[in-house]
Amino acid sequence: MSLNHVILGLLSREPMTGYQLKKMIQSTPFMYWSGNNNQIYKAFVELLDEGFVTKEVQHQEGSPSKNIYTITDDGMKEFKQWLLSVTDAPAFKKQLLIKLALADGLNRNDLENILESYTEVVKTQIILSEREIHQCCFAGQQSFGESLFIDLIRENVLSFYSSELEWIQRVRELISEIPNSKDNEAEAVSQNKKEKEESTMSYKIMEAQGKRYIYLTSDSPLILREQDAIDIISLCAEHSTNAVVLDGDSLSDDFVRLRTGLAGTILQKFENYNIKAAVTLKGGQHFPARFEEMLSEHSTGNTFRIFTGLDDAVSWLLA
């Protein structure tokens, strides 16, 4: 299975640029390729060499030129041959299964925390998948057969996550029978109390330029743990936006000190879920040198940037 056939299939509908193809792949939940620039570029080189696509350079006054790709007759034959070929077996390689297989040394509280975190991830995926399938390029197809297929795809995707939640509940019931020592129970109570005290993110749903974004603030340090990223992603899914403003003066020490690895984990999740995050500062704030370097690396990216004013942050988010 390769990205090349997906590109041929999308081009069989109409000619497109590489950027358009990348956006379509990223916004369709049942297409499991990342569709990053390197993959797209490599795929087009191969498809051009094989004569499956052609490229037309379209010049634009005042803007960079665009490469428009069109599928050829040979490309159509290759695409149809792939459609009729033997389909890959379903994939069952999941990180949670590996964790459970290696988790025999953990106590009940640790196992429950693993399941709780995974449950939130699955619930977030349900919300995101429902929205993305509704908005994806295939959802607007008019013919009866094509409309029926997208409905069946939606049913397949959502039934997977629903079954996963049912399975998680069965695992929970099994874990509940594992005895916890008194020390572990006391530790669990203390940890739950600490997390409740720390999880004080508040948010406002804001609108600008006819679009919506989430403004996050906190009386205590903001983004203390990986779960906070899941909570933010869930908020975005719930309110149909991918734009977030974070109060930079509240960022936690663990987030700005890169040795903890928290910032990298959070930003990777934002990128995976196509979340744009802008941090606003009141001015005069200094971060550790390595964090400043990371900010410089992201200064031209499309996932995470820092601004000294809210207006500039919102303009970038909603552009």
TrEMBL record:
Database matches in Pfam families: DUF4180, PadR
Residue ranges annotated for the DUF4180 domain, each copy included: 209-317
UniProt keyword annotation of DNA-binding present: yes
Keyword terms of this UniProt record: DNA-binding
Statement: the UniProt record of this protein carries the keyword DNA-binding: yes
Domain of life: Bacteria
All residue ranges annotated as the Transcription regulator PadR N-terminal domain in the record: 7-80
GO MF term set: DNA binding
PANTHER family xref list: NEGATIVE TRANSCRIPTION REGULATOR PADR, TRANSCRIPTIONAL REGULATOR YQJI
Name of the featured protein: DNA-binding PadR family transcriptional regulator
